[in-house]
Sequence to fold (219 residues):
Amino acid sequence: MSARLIAIGDIHGCKLALDRLLDTINPSPRDTVVTLGDYVDRGPDSRGVIDRLIQLGKETRHIALMGNHEEMMLGVIRKQMPHDMWLRHGGVETLDSYEFRGDLDFLPESHLEFFESLTPFHEESGHFFTHAAYSPKIPLSEQEAEMLRWHSLHESLPTRHLNGKIAVVGHTANKNGEILDHGHLICIDTYCYGGGWLTGLDVFSGATWQASREGKLRT
Ligand SMILES: [Mn+2]
Fold:
């Protein structure tokens, strides 16, 4: 089997969905899996999701992007941001999953290492990957965090990036559960925590996999 380049959308604590998706995709050491960020918050088991992603890095080549939710959480842990915005956006569920008792030091060392290793974008062959969006006329290495991690496609849809490659992003939830494909830009946030699906996409073959928050595969 030839190596695959697989993107996985916004997980948001949906561990059962992630388990089912990875069991089905069954990535090999020769495959690459790019997770697009927003691993934590809103869903029930952020801690379990991070455990599984750390394990994934031992099974395949795993590229883990940072989402705006990891940015918020790290901002609070590093005391660089007030906590209220994070808590309003699902941080309470993350703290519950870590059995938070009031100490900001709640992350296990391996998890802190994982969060600190997250990357802002990934570029490979004819594709590039960001959490949310990008500025089409600015090189990827010079993009603002605001565009990479916060920009909603409902506000505006970027035109093709100057690198000519196809963008694969998450962040803007497609609440109907379907992948949004504009040709030059594909959004695979299909609203898993809210009743849609967690989506995996092999960008070379176009193969897709989807699993629900309860861990049921879409057939
Ligand atoms: Mn997001």
